[in-house]
Design goal:
Rossmann fold; seven-stranded parallel β-sheet; 9 helices; about 40% helix; about 15% strand; binds nicotinamide-adenine-dinucleotide; binds uridine-5'-diphosphate; NAD(P)-bd_dom_sf; NAD(P)-bd_dom; transmembrane
Length: about 325
């Protein structure tokens, strides 16, 4: 099969490409390298079944493919808030273009949506029926409202033009290849602990998240694409931790002497988040298999290797 992965040079996209290439598919990786990096897909660059296309999805593009995994969009608050108008364009115009492409070539289209569409949830854990509690005018809105529109577009192309869609609502995912300066909590804490800097806890650290290891997530995406259910389907790990617990865990694993420091909680930061994965279990036979510690071990090892190879100020 010819499969397009938008955002394929990014964190989740590159792990997905590894799986698709290993399964023998022909893969087109489309990316503008905003937060993605060539090193993530380096091993495939010379492979005859792999093609890299540097392109911004806010511009139309004509390609011939059988399936589209649509992941292009910065996912970390630091990056998606850097240029919020661009983030909206990517979610709205970019998703429109990819749906237009899917319609023209009759490709199955999977949207990487997010738990952020539930906003700061009043219902816990979050099931797919919950419609969310989202601020339309806050600093996170470019991303969460953008993804809500992306879901709406997908369902409208489905109803109006018969586009074969799948919608995944991805919860916090972590693992090797996250950027050192990604800004998300797992990468921040691991890098800080490895470098002997204090771990920065925003607020009092009592807010919760549920962390899914990237290999589990990719398995869920592949099953959703292969199955008959349109979705939306939550994909995430239901094990819930406070941010303080996460900091302590990483501290113990990397550097028990690392300090923690408390910083202000960003605006509209969700208080609690945990997926209800009943649908994913029933529809896809899917549930996470990697618990936090083994997943963190792999992540820490990857960061350790990369940080060792970064130029230090003295040698730069
Ligand atoms: P990432 O930032 O590593 O990857 C996003 C990729 O999209 C990057 O390679 C980036 O260069 C590319 N991109 C961004 N804007 C683009 C544009 N206009 N045109 C072409 N390429 C563009 O993030 P990720 O963690 O791999 O997330 C991938 C997808 O999964 C995103 O859509 C994100 O919203 C979704 N998601 C991720 C998480 C998570 O915890 N990682 C949670 C929920 C949803
Ligand atoms: N589009 C694209 N590649 C294609 C087909 C469409 O980028 O192969 C874009 C197209 O330029 C348009 C969007 O997708 O901006 C929506 O396409 P659709 O055909 O639904 O709408 P229309 O072109 O009729 O406005
Ligand atoms: N967070 C933190 N310290 C950091 C980065 C993030 O305490 O250095 C907190 C953040 O305020 C949020 C949680 O960790 O409550 C998860 O943040 P992240 O940006 O990883 O994901 P999201 O908020 O999008 O779920």
């Amino acid at each position: 099969m010819r499969i397009l992965v938008t955002g394929g040079a990014g964190f989740i996209g590159s792990h997905l490409i590894d799986r698709l290439m290993e399964a023998g598919h022909e893969v087109l990786c489309l990316d503008n390298f905003y937060t993605g990096h060539k090193r993530n897909i380096l091993r495939w660059l010379d492979h005859p079944y792999f093609e890299l296309i540097r392109h911004d999805i806010t511009e139309p593009i004509r390609l011939e493919v059988d399936q589209i995994y649509h992941l292009a969009c910065p996912a970390s608050p630091v990056h998606y808030q850097y240029n919020p108008v661009k983030t909206i364009k990517t979610n709205v115009i970019g998703t429109l273009n990819m749906l237009g492409l899917a319609k023209r070539v009759r490709a199955r289209f999977l949207l990487a949506s997010t738990s952020e569409i539930y906003g700061d949830p009043e219902v816990h854990p979050q099931a797919e029926e919950y419609r969310g509690n989202v601020n339309t005018i806050g600093i996170r809105s470019c991303y969460d409202e953008g993804k809500r529109v992306a879901e709406t577009l997908a369902f409208d192309y489905h109803r109006q033009n018969d586009v074969d869609i799948r919608v995944a609502r991805i919860f916090n995912t972590y693992g090797p290849r996250m950027l050192e300066n990604d800004g998300r909590v797992v990468s921040n804490f691991v890098v800080q602990a490895l470098q002997g800097n204090p771990l920065t806890i925003y607020g009092d650290g009592s807010q919760t998240r549920s962390f899914c290891y990237v290999a589990d997530l990719v398995e869920g995406l592949i099953r959703l694409m292969a199955g008959d259910h349109v979705g939306p389907v939550n994909l995430g790990n239901p094990d819930e931790y406070t941010i303080l617990e996460l900091a302590k865990t990483i501290q113990t694993m990397v550097n028990p002497d690392a300090a923690v420091k408390f910083e202000p909680l960003p605006q509209d930061d969700p208080r609690r988040r945990r997926p209800d994965i009943t649908r994913a279990k029933h529809w896809l036979g899917w549930q996470p298999t990697v618990s936090l510690k083994p997943g963190l071990e792999k992540t820490i090892q990857d960061f350790r290797q990369r940080l060792e190879h970064l130029p230090t100020p003295a040698s730069a």
